[in-house]
Specification:
By secondary structure, this protein is mainly alpha-helical. It is built from 13 helices and 4 strands. Helix 2 crosses helix 11 and helix 11 (285-298) crosses helix 12 (303-324).
Length: 360
């Protein structure tokens, strides 16, 4: 009886400590929320920015978030099937950006870009989306497949090593100098929209990026929900052993998943180059971490969550510094602070991940 009573006291003490920790977390969270609301209210009361600024920041956030979302989809699909974080996915994004640069720069030097900008852009996107899946599939086949039954930490360490390997391989092959995307005349213009007494320039490039992102997201959603390979992907994500017993080639499905994620990351890489102009062998690191953050925010393993998480993070990065009246250099602090808050108060993400018994 004494032993049982002692165990009950230990459990009661642990429960009380857990409750106390939760109360402290919620108090801190409430304090942060009050501080944010106070700063936003102060900015609004002072009228520092007009509606034109908010519209411009929203557009910039959608452009940034679109690229985050496309890369985040690769993270979330691989996790949904293999329960691993492919930290080399940022380098897949970088390879897409580099591939697009070499193609577009070749067209620029030959004069083809000036005379045929639309075909040149189309071919650039096709190559930028075509090279990364080759690298992604080889990465899965050589580095990840032999470790499929290993403890989760082993593939994670392998992914980090693969990230550095790809980064340094590109550095050795193409040098450390920054590559500058040539200007595409047809995308350098802008539409002028009147907002109150001011005018806002909506760049052609921003509209193109948002439209392409929407098309790719819809295509992915239809692929996963309406096609045979999509059903196979969902079956493998639910239970690989049961899917194999039903005649599904699990290895092929995993390979296709890596390829699709790499295609989307390649498209985002070309968009990044066209938008920011400069690419280098380390260009995939920060966007890759931000895309992983987006996947966690939306709910890792949840495809609609990755889409929403990427757009949400892009909007927060663009609007929050203005709303809080702080330097835009603090946007990374805001992004990763938001990640910490979500992990503390809602670890499953905004939309949440639907876990099976085996995944849990």
């Amino acid at each position: 009886m004494a032993v049982v009573s002692q165990e009950a006291q230990v459990r009661r003490a642990a429960t009380m400590q857990l409750s106390f920790n939760r109360i402290v977390l919620w108090v801190v969270g409430l304090g942060v929320a009050v501080l944010v609301v106070w700063r936003i209210a102060g900015t609004a009361a002072q009228g520092l920015y007009g509606p034109d600024v908010w519209l411009m920041q929203t557009l910039n956030g959608l452009v940034q978030g679109s690229m985050y979302a496309l890369v985040a989809l690769g993270y979330t699909m691989v996790y949904g099937i293999l329960l691993m974080i492919n930290f080399a996915h940022g380098e897949i994004f970088m390879i897409g950006a580099m591939s697009g640069y070499f193609v577009l720069n070749g067209f620029h030097q030959s004069g083809f870009l000036a005379t045929n900008p639309v075909p040149a852009l189309l071919i650039t996107f096709l190559v930028g989306m075509g090279v990364p899946p080759i690298v992604g599939v080889l990465l899965e086949r050589i580095a990840y497949r032999p470790l499929r039954r290993a403890p989760r930490l082993v593939p994670l360490i392998c992914a980090i090593g693969a990230s550095f390997f790809l980064q340094q391989a590109v550095r050795l092959l193409f040098g450390i100098r920054t590559k500058v995307y040539p200007t595409v005349a047809v995308l350098s213009g802008a539409w002028t929209v009147s907002v109150g007494e001011r005018e806002v320039r909506i760049q052609h490039m921003s509209v193109l990026i948002i439209v392409i992102t929407i098309i790719l997201m819809v295509a992915l959603y239809l692929l996963v929900r309406k096609t045979k390979i999509g059903k196979a992907m969902r079956a493998v994500a639910e239970d690989k052993e049961a899917a194999a017993l039903m005649g599904i080639d699990v290895d092929r499905v995993i390979m296709v998943t890596f390829a699709i994620g790499a295609i989307l990351a390649g498209a985002a890489g070309v968009m990044w180059g066209l938008w920011y102009k400069q690419v280098i062998h380390t260009v995939g690191f920060i966007p890759g971490i931000k895309a992983f953050t987006s996947a966690v925010l939306g709910g890792i393993g949840n495809i609609p969550g990755a889409m929403m998480g990427g757009l949400f993070l892009g909007l927060v990065e663009a609007i929050a510094p203005t709303a809080l009246d702080i330097s835009t250099q603090l946007k990374d602090v805001i992004s990763f602070g938001l990640l910490v808050i979500v992990l503390i108060f809602r670890p499953s993400g905004i939309l949440g991940e639907v876990l099976t018994g085996k995944k849990a």
